[in-house]
Amino acid sequence: MVRILAFLVGLFFSGWLLVTFGVGLVSYISEPPAATAEHEFHKDPRTLALKSDGPFGKFDRQQLQRGFQVYKEVCSACHSLRLVHFRNFEALGYNEDEVKAIAANWAIPSPAIDPDTGEASTRPSLPADPVPSPYANEVAARAANNNALPPDLSLITKARHGGASYVYSLLTGYQDPPKELAKEFPDAMPGTGLHYNPYFANLNIAMAPPLADGQVTFADGSPSTREQAAKDVAAFLVWTAEPTLEKRHQTGWAVLIFLLIATVLGYMAYRNVWADKKH
Amino acid sequence: MSFPWANHYEPKFALTKWVDERLPLPRLVYNAVGAGYPVPRNLNYFWNFGVLAGVALVIQIVTGIILAMHYAPNALVAFDSTEHIMRDVNWGWLMRYGHANGASFFFIVVYIHIFRGLYFSSYKAPREMIWLLGLVIFLLMMATAFMGYVLPWGQMSFWGAKVITGLFSAIPLIGPSLQEWLLGGFAPDNAALNRFFSLHYLLPFVIAGVVILHIWSLHIPGSSNPTGVEVKTESDTVPFHPYYTAKDGFGLGVFLIFYCAALFFLPNFLGHPDNYIPANPLSTPAHIVPEWYFWPFYAILRAFTFDFLFIPAKLLGVLAMFASILLLFFLPWLDTSPVRSGKYRPLFRKFFWFGLIPCVLVLGYCGGAPAEEPFVMISQIASAYYFAHFLIILPIISAIERPDPLPLSITEAVLGSDAAPEAQPAE
Question: In 3-state terms, what secondary structure has residue B424?
Fold first, then answer.
């Protein structure tokens, strides 16, 4: 009885799936799905190799400081970094006083409550504060950006396929729309206030090209190019997404070496226990 | 409940004797996973995975309890409290990555454990109850994992919760009301997050309880083995301790190496980037996919694209997805071959390695791919095979197959038919 019922259920599901497949195949062959602009023109990110990559990866503090400078001078005008606190910047190699100065001199003050009136006000930031957002809320952010919302950058390298390579490719990927795009997909051409970028998911991004050659001058003599700034800020955003990355790598090796030794001992114990038993 | 030649627990010290007379817990442990449990001597490494699944459950419970000390199950702060754990809690990143990757590795070892059971037909009499309880554990794990994935309240958390609870809305008449009742609202929000957290904390302990029943029912007939031939004499078995505690110790080391390599060096490889974006009910991700361990079932769900008479395609997909798991409960009665091990079943073995395994891998790949052609067509073929394999092919194979000759005993399989049992001189 169970087997008869099972047979019927199996026949129903498998049969209907095969019918569906047949119909789908016919329509797939007679009417192949139309190509989309994203399929044709979207590009995978160009690989950006960083010192923090791989199981031995460590941050390049010099590069993180340059990337921080790019964020401070360029990105922070529109993008928040709300999960990072000023105190975290000590990890970039700044000392306590420098961190205090960075916080106090930040272009955007921290929101506060006036202790006398109870009304919303602002005050200079302290190391304990998160990096203040450039806009009071989402509505203000959209109003200032042609209805586009600049995303928070704290986790951006973890929140996009490709991570740092994506950020780097996007920042350096602005170009004029290819002629074929205008010919094949006129609807996919960038509209008003949009910019063509083949590394962006739908090819047209609201952010204007943020970096240009000569825009950020680095104190350590690194070239003041768009390329350099894009690499450095991508490296910085890897750090903001996971400030504990170095500790993770170091701990990982200690744990793995311990486990390797323990497992070899475990294998020898196993062979020893079983030495007199054929199995 | 055990073989007559099993070792007997004899307390050596006055204290252990005193305890044994009042609460024979050490005796229970001795008989369950100690020297008092005789186990076939020929188990291969696939028999390590039950213990590994138990260890994975313990890892999940320990890391989970610590995470719950720092996590806040409120839609306003859940995402930020998760990041607080990653950034500000001492070793919080280790607990969270350990828990997230621990879930994946729990499923990896459980899937291997299940497929070991399928290949060696461990579900057959007298071990049906072990199999049924194991499937209950599997279902509880799926519910727990799904609800746990919602807790960080990222984009995939939110949209995953919406899609999965939306499955219930496919039920005729009561469906939409049922979904609202499950979520405590029209869409996932604070009410859903709170109850998911509560259940996510509860279910692991339910799993632990069913695990105890699973092991209890295992100890009635004793462990199966790669030949599928039942234990006959003492020379077929060895005591669990020290023989299999030693082997499991080695297996555990290998498991932990893989787990820690993922945890420390590729912690986000098995996750989805979108879950690092805070939940946003107004922005639907381009591709909503569950965690990788649900992909085969997700592919079956999405393989149904046409209505059948009055049954909408969505309901068909939901029914098929649940049926794909529920049919496993009937395996002991669908596979009627008296031979257990796939080693002695030439036809069964072919369908297992060249049918079922590729089918499940293809389904897994298609479930993670976008819902576009050709993936939908491929998953239709693979799903059709999946149902046919268990419900049609397997019963037919067991009726027509001529199994290879079985060894007379486990000892013979290990030592050869003319070997003198256990009589080698020392040195």
Answer: coil
Q: Look up residue A2 and give its two tokens.
A: 């169970």
Contact A238, A53 (CB under 8 A): no
A1 token code pair? 């009885």
A9 → closest Cβ in B94, B316, B323: B323
Asked if residue B50 lies in contact with residue B214, where contact means CB atoms within 8 angstroms, the answer is no
CA of B165 vs chain A CAs: smallest distance (Å): 23
Q: How many CA atoms lie within 13 A of B274 on its CB side?
A: 19
For A1-58, the pLDDT digits (tens) are 889 999 999 999 999 999 999 999 999 999 888 888 888 899 999 999 999 999 999 9
Output the six-digit token pair for A116. Answer: 């006398």
Of B263, B264, B392, the CB nearest to A10: B392
Q: Is A61 at the interface with chain B, CB within 8 A?
A: no
A149-194, pLDDT tens digit by residue?
Answer: 999 999 999 999 999 999 999 999 999 999 988 888 988 888 888 9
Distance separating alpha carbons of residues A131 and A103, to the nearest angstrom: 8
Nearest to A19, CA basis, from B308, B374, B298, B324: B308
pLDDT at residue B423 is higher than 50:
no
Contacts of B146 (CB under 8 A, 6+ apart): B160, B164, B290, B294
Question: What was the pLDDT predicted at B418?
Answer: 59
Sequence length of chain A is 279
Assign B206 a pLDDT band (cuts: 50, 70, 90). very high
The radius of gyration of chain A from alpha carbons, rounded to an integer in Å, stands at 27
With left for phi above 0 and alpha for psi between -120 and 50, is residue A197 left, alpha or beta? beta
CA distance A128 to chain B (A): 12
Q: Tens of pLDDT along B79-137?
A: 999 999 999 999 999 999 999 999 999 999 999 999 999 999 999 999 999 999 999 99
Q: Does B83 touch chain A (CB under 8 A)?
A: yes
Write out the catalytic residue numbers of B: 219, 223, 247-248, 291
B75 with B153: CB under 8 angstroms?
Answer: yes
pLDDT for residue B419 = 54
Residue of B nearest to A239 (CA): B87
Among chain A residues, CA nearest to B275: A159
Compute the mean pLDDT over every residue in chain A, rounded to the nearest whole number: 94
CA distance, residue A123 to nearest chain B CA (Å)? 24
Residues contacting B38, CB < 8 A, separation 6+: B2, B3, B5, B6, B222, B231, B234, B237, B238, B239, B240
State whether B334 and A2 contact (CB < 8 Å): yes
Nearest chain B Cα to A84, which residue?
B87
Kindly tell me if the per-residue pLDDT of B420 is higher than 70: no
A-B CB pairs within 8 A amount to: 172
Block residue for tokens 């010290």 = B13
Question: Is the CB of residue B425 less than 8 Å away from at least one CB of chain A?
Answer: no
